[in-house]
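Data card: per-record layout.
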Amino acid sequence: MVRRTSAERRIPIVLACTVCKARNYKTSRSRQPNAKAVTLKKYCATCGAHTLHLETQ
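The structure for this 57-residue chain is written out next.
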């Protein structure tokens, strides 16, 4: 059995603002095939407000 580090078990993703479509944040999520897309409420410097950010490729 090969042991993977925590970085190998996660998938890097980019979060984009739903209002202005600016790609503001980079993060990672679980590698599970049935995992839902990440949605977070984050601050968007372009909009100047806290908006919903969705996972993009």
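Known properties of this structure: Strands lie at 10-17, 23-30, 39-44, 49-56. Residues 10-56 form a domain with the Rubrerythrin, domain 2 fold (CATH 2.20.28.120).

See the next section for split statistics.
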